């Protein structure tokens, strides 16, 4: 398994440098294929500028290499996707400012740059995610002020063990819509 993870890392780092579209899958966590451009690579986590099924860049997804079961660069349908992005005038984002050194730094920097994040803990809650503003983070624990699907802020924060977190998303259209309707929950840009 370690050899496979090392190969996934090499493929993703190479795709990052070349600007190649990639497809990744996490069979054990049942995501299906996630397609995007590698936005950054850390020691244990990497970030993708996600290309959704409507051929739009829809935020950033951060995943752990250890959770991957499949990586392909370029993925099936890449020629069409690249042509469609060009035809639609969609440009690939550049310059991810999120620190991928560790999950703690990823959460801290993303939380300082984006008003809300989406947190997934698919190992224990495969069909759930939590969306909210990072209130605090340390080596072991993330505290989030949650916003619900009606764009209403919850009164009490939720805590997550960092060892439970399997995916972090930010900058998505849905997250932006929640903030537009519900406000930023006291977020202050750094």
Would you mind describing this structure in some detail?
By secondary structure, the chain is α+β, with helices and mostly antiparallel strands. The chain folds into 2 domains: 2-87, Roll (SH3 type barrels); 103-182, SH3 type barrels. The protein has 4 helices and 10 strands. It has helices at residues 2-18, 78-87, 103-113, 173-182, and strands at residues 21-25, 34-41, 45-51, 57-64, 70-72, 117-120, 130-137, 141-146, 158-161, 167-170. The chain has a 10-stranded antiparallel β-sheet. The longest helix has 17 residues, at 2-18. It is globular. The N and C termini lie far apart (40 Å). The mean pLDDT is 93.
């Amino acid at each position: 398994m370690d050899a496979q993870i090392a190969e996934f890392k090499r493929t993703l780092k190479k795709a990052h440098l070349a600007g190649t579209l990639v497809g990744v899958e996490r069979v054990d966590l049942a995501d299906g294929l996630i397609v995007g451009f590698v936005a950054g690579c850390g020691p244990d986590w990497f970030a993708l500028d996600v290309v959704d099924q409507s051929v739009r860049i829809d935020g950033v997804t951060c995943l752990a290499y250890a959770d991957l079961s499949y990586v392909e660069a370029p993925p099936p349908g890449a020629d069409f996707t690249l042509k469609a992005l060009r035809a639609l005038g969609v440009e690939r984002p550049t310059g991810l400012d999120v620190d991928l050194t560790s999950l703690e730094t990823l959460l801290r920097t993303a939380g300082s740059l984006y008003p809300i994040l989406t947190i997934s803990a698919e190992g224990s809650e495969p069909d759930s995610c939590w969306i909210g503003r990072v209130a605090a983070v340390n080596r072991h624990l993330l505290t989030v002020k949650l916003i619900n699907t009606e764009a209403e802020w919850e009164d009490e924060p939720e805590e997550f063990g960092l060892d439970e977190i399997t995916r972090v998303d930010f900058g998505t259209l849905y997250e932006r819509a929640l903030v537009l309707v519900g406000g930023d929950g006291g977020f202050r840009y750094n």
